[in-house]
Structure formats: structure tokens, C-alpha cells
Amino acid sequence: MNRDLPVIAESLWHQADFIQAFGKASRGAYQVNVANGWWEDRNAIMASGMPSVVPLVVIGCLGLVQSEASEAIEAARKQPQGAWGDYLTKDTLVRELAGTVVRCMDLATRFDLPLAEAIVEEIKANAERGYKHGGKAA
User: Distances from the Cα of 28 to the Cαs of 34, 43, 82, 103, 118, in angstroms?
Assistant: First the structure.
């Protein structure tokens, strides 16, 4: 590929910096949700020993991720584009996108998933793909 790659795709230093900062933010998001009681019932259910219960909890958490993404769709549909980036106001597009990411951070932290590392790898993989790789429409 002849085009310039994003800094995060080329620089191990930038990757490590991102991974460290994102990991710290993820742990903070998770700690807030634990302190607010959102993991009490989930952890109790998972501790029950019932077979296949952990995937059900994860699926429930992914449903919350999807609900945040749906709220972002609603914000994009209803709000003027000029309001999308208002990060101080609840229910704006950027805040709903942030909610989606925070839900992912929470889930990944609870299950000790290397989300920051996976994001770096995904960016690197996308940077290496060709223009609309495979002729995809979106």
C-alpha cells in the first residue's frame, strides 16, 4: 500500500501510549459501573454455576451496547448536524457514541479482554486494506 498509514498503525510508541491511556479509562468506566451496582446481579448470576450463563450475561451487555448505538442513530436522525459534536449536552450524537464506547470498555474490562490492543490491530488492518476492499458499498 503506497498511502500514508495513521501514526498509530506505524508507531509502537503511539500504540503503547494509546493502550495505556485507553486501559486506564476503561478501568475507570468499569469501576464507576461497579460502584453504581450495575455488576451486582450480573456477577451473582455468573457465580450461580448454571451452564451457559456467562454468555447470556455478555449478550445482555452487548444489548446495552446496541441500545447506545441505536440512541446515536436517533440523535443523528433528529438533531441538526451542528449539534452532533456538543459533548456537554446529554443525548447528542457524540455523547451517544461515547456511551457506546463506554459500554464496550465496561464489558471488556469485566472479562479482561484486551480491547485497546484489539482496536490498534483493527486500525492497522483497516489501514492495509485497499480502497473499498472487495468492492463493498459500506
Answer: 10, 18, 30, 12, 19
